[in-house]
């Protein structure tokens, strides 16, 4: 039996690499003859650099940059050929901010701009920035300031102070810094910058904003949009990704591309799927969002395109059997169910994922030999 194990991270408990390894170990324990191809994946959020490095090789560069709260953090980006892959969450991710200090009015994306400048300085002609898992809501203002936008000081203090911007922001130096460089925002978030579906309203609460702060942050981003772009970039799909970092990148000539498509293409998923009997994917929470372009959906589609069955092993599953089947997913399995409780699934995630994978392996082995029966959980 040949299987491809291609999960996203289980946010908060397992990186994509750890999840893939746990599934492989569990499966092998029940089916030692299995040929397993491990392809841990990312949609541009946390894990982006690690999974691309695993798949592509290349050189990791380390840089000390401004963290989300203004203190330095160490971040790594990948250089493969003339392309640099930057993971914005390494510079300004939510996981970088202790829970009691979460405040999307204060956090800055400045470190992302410092990483872009570092990569361009190292000779990159193409810079792909993975967006997601951010702690920020500053429209990419900090990133732009690090690349030379003025007034720099007014742009690096987080999202809230943007409300006080009194004159147009001068983007000439930031655009000049990227002359001749292709800049790509890799994300599968299609939200605009502002309003009901914008960065503040949709992603502000997970970063610590209450309803009042969401309103204030949205107004501050509107002031930033007035000071930066009289045109329609604020409406663009993906402008609202990573607290508006998508918008900031669009302002300096960036384009938005699907992070899932970028990663699946870079790791060559289609070729591995074609040679497999079964594809396994997964993530922390497999819900209706997952069926709207998130990573497991992309993997399931790649499997369906080649007529290979796909199963999902997730922390929690909130997708019905029919919905999953319509997305080309044969079976879904939940760690919360197999471990017996959310607490157990969260606290013993690797061990429980190994056990679940072994159980699924026995069912598939049984089904293949005609002696067993598969069922959807
Ligand atoms: N081991 C686990 N067991 C159960 N649920 C998990 C586990 N790990 C993560 N989760 C759930 O998944 C959620 C994150 O969802 P995930 O799909 O990984 O990320 P995102 O939605 O940011 O892409 C967490 O908030 C948590 O509720
Ligand atoms: O960083 C963020 O603001 C959001 C959207 O880009 O990320 P995630 O989808 O990982 O919650």
TrEMBL record:
Keywords, ordered alphabetically: Kinase, Transferase
Principal EC category: transferase
SUPFAM superfamilies from the UniProt entry: Glycerate kinase I
Molecular functions per Gene Ontology: glycerate 2-kinase activity; glycerate kinase activity
GO biological process per UniProt: organic acid phosphorylation
Domain of life, per lineage: Bacteria
Alphabetical list of InterPro entries matching this protein: Glyc_kinase_flavodox-like_fold, Glycerate_kinase, Glycerate_kinase_RE-like, Glycerate_kinase_sf
Record's keyword annotation contains Transferase: yes
Enzyme Commission numbers on file: 2.7.1.165
Family to which this protein belongs: Belongs to the glycerate kinase type-1 family.
Name of the protein: Glycerate 2-kinase
Organism for this UniProt entry: Streptomonospora litoralis
Gene name in the database record: garK
């Amino acid at each position: 039996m040949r299987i491809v194990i291609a999960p996203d991270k289980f946010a908060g408990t397992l990186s994509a690499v750890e999840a893939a390894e746990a599934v492989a170990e569990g499966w092998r324990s029940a089916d030692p003859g299995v040929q397993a191809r491990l392809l841990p994946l990312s949609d541009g959020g946390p894990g982006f650099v690690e999974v691309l490095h695993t798949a592509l090789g290349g050189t990791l560069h380390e840089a000390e940059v401004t963290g989300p709260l203004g203190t330095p953090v160490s971040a790594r980006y990948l250089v493969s050929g003339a392309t640099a892959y930057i993971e914005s969450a390494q510079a300004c991710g939510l996981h970088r901010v202790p829970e009691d200090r979460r405040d999307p009015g204060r956090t800055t994306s400045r470190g992302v701009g410092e990483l872009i400048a570092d990569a361009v300085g190292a000779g990159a002609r193409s810079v792909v920035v993975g967006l997601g898992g951010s702690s920020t809501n500053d429209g990419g203002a900090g990133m732009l300031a690090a690349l030379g936008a003025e007034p720099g000081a007014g742009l690096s203090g987080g999202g809230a102070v943007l409300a006080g911007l009194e004159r147009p922001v001068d983007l000439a130096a930031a655009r000049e810094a990227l002359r001749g460089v292709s800049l790509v925002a890799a994300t599968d978030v299609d939200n605009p910058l502002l309003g009901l579906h914008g960065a503040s309203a949709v992603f502000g609460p997970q970063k610590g904003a209450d309803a009042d702060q969401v309103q204030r942050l949205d107004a501050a981003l509107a002031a930033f949009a007035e000071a930066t772009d009289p045109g329609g970039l604020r409406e663009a799909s993906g402008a609202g990704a990573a607290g508006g970092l998508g918008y900031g990148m669009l302002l300096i000539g960036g384009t938005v591309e699907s992070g899932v498509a970028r990663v699946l293409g870079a790791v060559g998923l289609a070729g591995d799927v074609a040679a497999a009997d079964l594809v396994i994917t997964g993530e922390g929470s497999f819900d209706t969002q997952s069926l709207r372009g998130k990573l497991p959906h992309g993997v399931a589609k790649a499997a369906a395109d080649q007529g290979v069955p796909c199963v999902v092993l997730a922390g929690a599953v909130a997708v019905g059997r029919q919905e999953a089947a319509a997305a080309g997913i044969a079976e879904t399995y939940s760690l919360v169910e197999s471990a017996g409780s959310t607490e157990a699934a969260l606290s013993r995630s690797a061990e429980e994922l190994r056990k679940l994978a072994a159980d699924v392996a026995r069912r598939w082995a049984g089904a293949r030999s005609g002696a067993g029966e598969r069922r959807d959980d």
